Amino acid sequence: MGIENILFAGETLFKNLNVFDPDYTPSNYNFREEQMEGLAITLRPIFKNSRPINTVVLGQCATGKTTAIKKIFEIVKENKGDVVCCYINCQLHNTLYGVFSKIYKEVMGVEPPVSGLSTTKIYQIIVEELKKKKFNLIVAFDDINYLLNEVDVNKIFYDLLRVNEEYDGVKTGVFAILSDIEFRFKLDKNVGSVFSPHEILFPPYSYNEIHDILLDRVKGGFYPNIISDELLEEITNQTYESGDLRVGINLLKVAGNIAESNGSRFIEDEHVDEAIAKSVSVNLKQSLKSLSKEEMELIKLIAKEDKVLNAKDLFNDFNKKTGLKYHKFNSVLNKLEFLRLIDVKFTGKGTRGNSRQIILRFGVEDVKKCTL
Question: 3-18+214-279 architecture in CATH?
């Protein structure tokens, strides 16, 4: 099929292609009732004109954290007109000025003047507007680890949280959405003591939950009978093994596009096989992108040889490479396991944690390709 035919062919397998986009918010949001209830409890005080409970929303990639925040913000907006809910994707807004410009737009309804205002002036305008309208503010920082440096994080949190003390009648709350288990230790003591968050954990989806979520996407995104139950099971297996729901959603989209480009009226085995072969895990790319220098060094050492490593040998290599001690090594190792980049298994032999075996969850070549 020629390029023009591929691009402009009228027939399609997709009923709604947007269903397979990363930022799509599904109408059916299942298997997170406990977490949604937790979020509702933290926001309940705002409905009684009191301060919401600051919250850390913690979980590995693609466990429903962002969708939960967006859903709960929709509920607040529909039922509480004097609350401004501001969602900030820190991958896009990762500077002091960028963050407060985003809040300014949400509060004022327009972008900051093109003539340019200082961050301090933008902050003052935001707070004065909240005070004048008697509005309250809730800010959710998604992937907060993408903020450029710890100074920015502390400055942003300090400015938002001190509003409660310095401006009568204005209540503010902060949600931090993250997969970095050490984030709280990056805050200054003074900021951390004021933040003092409640923690809500989003565990990985089970196999059956992944299958049902992908089935919902199939029903919403494809016309009927486009993909068989057997192929959906295969994609579910791939997704469960990767530990990342986005892998399955992306495989559905890619397989559908391949089938269309081949002129097929439904997705066949070879289309799924080709999609799997072409797709480098979204989770791998995103997770590696968020790693610190030390974390990246360790994952490179793990991927250096295609074999199971023991913790003792790995620490020795890590120490020689970075000069960092065992405590930091252990912390980084826990982070990589939390992000499901590696598996850590205990052998029952050895001491001081060195009885652990380290197993890379992805292909060595894929990791090397993404860490070049």
Answer: Orthogonal Bundle (1.10)
Strands (E), 164-272: 172-178, 198-201
| Strand duo 172-178 + 342-346: pairing | unpaired
- Which residues have C-beta within 8 Å of that of residue 261, sequence separation ≥ 6? 1, 6
Task: Please state which architecture CATH assigns to domain 285-370.
Answer: Orthogonal Bundle (1.10)
Pair 198, 216: CB distance under 8 Å: no
Distance of CA 341 to the CA centre of its chain: 15
Question: Which pairs from 93-100 meet CB under 8 Å and 24+ separation?
Answer: 94/146, 94/147, 94/148, 94/152, 95/147, 95/148, 95/152, 96/152, 96/155, 96/156, 97/122, 99/141, 99/147, 99/152, 99/156, 100/126, 100/156, 100/159
CA diameter of the chain: 67
> Considering the entire predicted model, what is its pTM?
0.81
Q: How confident is the model at residue 283 (pLDDT cuts 50, 70, 90)?
A: low
The number of angstroms, rounded, from the C-alpha of 236 to the middle of its chain's C-alpha atoms is 20
Work out whether the CA dihedral 26, 30, 34, 40 comes out positive or negative.
positive
- What residues contact 368, with CB distance under 8 A and at least 6 apart? 303
Distance CA 333, CA 240 (A): 22
Question: Is there a contact between 271 and 222 (Cβ–Cβ < 8 Å)?
Answer: no
pLDDT tens digits, residue range 71-119? 999 999 999 999 999 999 998 898 899 999 999 999 999 999 877 789 9
Range 33-201 has CATH code 3.40.50.20: no
For the chain, which residues make up each domain, given as ranges?
3-18+214-279, 33-201, 285-370
Per-residue tokens: 9: 């062919």
End-to-end alpha carbon distance in the chain: 35
Tell me the three state secondary structure of residue 140: strand
Helix (H) or strand (E) holding 278: helix 269-278
